[in-house]
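Table S5 (text form). Sequence records supplied for joint modeling of the two-component complex.
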Amino acid sequence: MILIYLICAIALGATQFVIRNRQMTHIVAMGTILLQWVLTIYATLHRDETDLFFFKYDGLGILMLWALAIISSVTMLHSTRYIPTPIQYDLNRMTSQYYGAMQILMMALSAAYLSSHIAMTWIFIEVTTLSASALIFYRRDKGSVEATWKYVFACSISLVLVYVGILLITIAMQQNAEEGLSFATLEKYASTMDEFWLKMSMIFILVGYSAKMSLFPMFTAGIDAKDKAPTPAAGLLSSVLMNAGFVAFYRFYKVMQLSAACIWARYVVLGIAIVSLFVAAVYLIRVHNVKRLFAYSSVEHMAVAMLGLAAGGIGTIYCILHVIIHSFVKSSIFLHIAHIYRVYGTKQLSNIGRYIRYTGVGTTIVFLATISITAMPPSGLFFTELMIFKSMIDMHWWICLAVVLILLTVIVWAISRDMFSFLFQKPEEPIEIEPKSVNMPYGEMIGQLLLLFIAIWLGIYTPSFVSDLIL
Amino acid sequence: MNTILLIVFMITLLYFSVANRLMSYVSILVLQGLLVCGVSLLSLNDMNLVNLGIILLETLIVKAILMPYFIRRVILQNNITREAEPSVPNSISLAITSAIIVLTYIATYYVPLNERINLLYFVTALSAILSGLYFIATRRKVITHVICYVIIENGAFILSMAVGGEMPAMVNLGVLLDVLVSVFLLVIFINKVGDVTEDGDVGGLTTLKD
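The corresponding structure-token record, covering 681 residues in total, follows.
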């Protein structure tokens, strides 16, 4: 099935790049969504089966596929209405390139989620860089060129580091390296691997994938990318693309947990998580742009997920759930930023305010998203964070927990300050042009509310289907 | 013979740290590509024809010919100033690059190298990767960043040789993909960077901040 999927996805992507008719582009985009759902349902029905040697429909992969299918469907529907086109460029050409890049990105993400081989995962993560850069480059202005350049460069360097990490694993495996580098083989020989080289390998892989996961030290490229990409694409970059980095690292981390370096690995992940939280807190205090605000919030949430991973036990389970719920919330709010831009014509926090005057539904969505993203009840993230903290308590990481809670308090304060003043207060520096009260299309409204509803529902009542996939 | 090639490779890193002109950088890339090609052909004695083809494509065609050619063309087309204009004096760069090589060499005596790793390969690879990162940090032009990226890639490639030439085919293909991505993305994209910045100076790409 995966081979058919890959062929169809490449064919659809290529068709998109060739088509110069906007209507046809949208029809082919519907084909993209359909293909994604077919793969997701097939994977669910064939759980734990191996396909094409290097792919396995395991629980984590299926869960990520569901998130991708839902989020990408909503994103594609949004994209049909929201595609900003600078007048100097050909609308049809830009639309087809946008959808073509989107299709390739979705294909690479699906393959990365399902890959059961460390090198194959790396290759598809590399393809995501290529397709994501085409999306970031969409507007072709100075800002998007800069963001694309930084993203491509940082991701390329990061992926070389991951490659070095993979090579170091072969050293760590010693003579067993000849059996291949599938995750199953790595797990099989984890206990006999050379500890020093495995540790070195983890450092390279963690630093490398930190660019995709939006974690310290390579988080900066992702921030600019999310800021400059068209909002539907930014929604994908800050949700399902981050998930791909997470899956890639998580699968390797499972190997580390079976090795002699498991305790060391925990503390490295814990350290990276706390530093990332600190970075997010510092930047969120001084951020001036609504897109960048939510981009830094992604750094925070991935750091919280890493805390769960480091703590282990129930922390690992809730770490995965946290990543999934975060994807729904973050994609919803990024999609809504398109509407904020329609109303104000700017993303600068100092220029926007009193949103409640212009749209009631929009205010409800932003309010719900703010509640969700700051992990206040009934947000699903509240429950996952609570369980992650519990797992830290189980590990007796009291000092770390105190530091984390202080940093999270700062983050919650910073986000709430900016978002609630945006909703209810006058802007500090109002723009000269009066904001327009634009009606929100029903399709967009339903899509964004649906994503937020899923995020809340998954936290309050995690269905057995989801818990079964995580476990 | 391999030892000589690897030592010459390390000398190219030192030369890079003091070179002033972009065309010198391009020449260094050509030389490094040839050296990497020589090292890989001598290291992988018993490889099959497919692997040999991939290695040749990776090293000789892409690293020694295509990449330097594209970079040279970009420099000429965009009228980029031929001076490298590093932000750190060359003498300091030379000292730091030398220190990277020496420290890497000393450090490898303290790590548990097994029979699968060749010490000199490992030192050369790590020196190239670390020096490449240092060069990126101290050069301002976008085009020099691309050149430094290729140096890092060369280092990663030598590291793959260091593990004993028994690299799985998938990883080998990965390197090829990596190189192709760097050609298609970095080199082609840099033309667009040239459109929006004067003189291909990465200093112009600093508008995105908080």
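Note: The mean pLDDT of chain B is 80.
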